[in-house]
Amino acid sequence: MSGIGLLKIKPSDLKFPFELKKPITCCMQLTNKTDRYVAFKVKTTNPKKYCVRPNMGIILPHMTCSVTVQMQAQNEAPPDNQCRDKFLIQSVVAADGAATKDITPEMFNKAPDKVVDEFKLRVVYIPANPPSPVPEEPEEGWSPRTLDKGTQTSSSFDNALTMISKLTKEKSDAIQQNQELRQELCTARIHW
C-alpha cells in the first residue's frame, strides 16, 4: 500500500492468479487523501496485454475509486512464472469540480512548477489453484472411503468434494460480481 502523495494505492503489487488461455482480473483501490480533486492516469509497460477500466479519472476529496485491470488470456506461461510488466499511476491536483472529460495528457507532463505524483506497481503471478486442504496421500491405515467398521463413506466424501467445488465457484462468482459492481460505482462517481 502506498502511503505518500495525493493517493493511497492498494495493493502495492498487482497479483494475478495466472491461468493459461483465461483472462484474469485484478482490482486496485485509489483513495484521494486530500481536500482537493485529484486526476489520475494509469499506464502500463504492456498496453496490449492489459485492459484498464477506468484508465483515467477524477477522484473527489477523501473518496475511493476502484480500478479493474484485466490481463488478456495468455497462450503460454512465462519463464519461471515471473512477469516483468509494470504499471504507473500518475496523479495531479485538478480544478475543483473537474470531470473525467476535463483530463488532458498535458496535465501529467512534469514541469518545475507542477507536482506529478507517480506510483509504480509490479505485476506478480500467483498460483491459480491453491493447494487442496484435503491431503493427497491418506494417513497410514486410513482411507477416505472407509470408516473403521468398513462402512462405505464414498458418498459423503464425494458430496463434500462437490460442495467444496460448488462453494469455490460461488466465491469466485461473488468476487467477480463485487469487482464489476465496484467498477460501476467508480464509473458512476466519475460521471456524477
From TrEMBL:
The entry's family comment says: Belongs to the VAMP-associated protein (VAP) (TC 9.B.17) family.
Database matches in SUPFAM superfamilies:
PapD-like
What is one GO biological process annotated to this record? endoplasmic reticulum membrane organization
List the top taxonomic levels of the source. Answer: Eukaryota, Viridiplantae, Streptophyta, Embryophyta, Tracheophyta
InterPro entries per record: Ig-like_fold, MSP_dom, PapD-like_sf, VAP
Q: Which domain of life is it from?
A: Eukaryota
Q: Where in this chain does the record put each MSP domain?
A: 6-126
The entry's cellular-component GO terms read: endoplasmic reticulum membrane; plasma membrane
Q: Region Disordered: list its residue ranges.
A: 130-155
Q: What is this protein called?
A: Vesicle-associated protein 1-3 isoform X6
Q: Which gene encodes it?
A: LOC105043611
The record's listing under Pfam families reads: Motile_Sperm
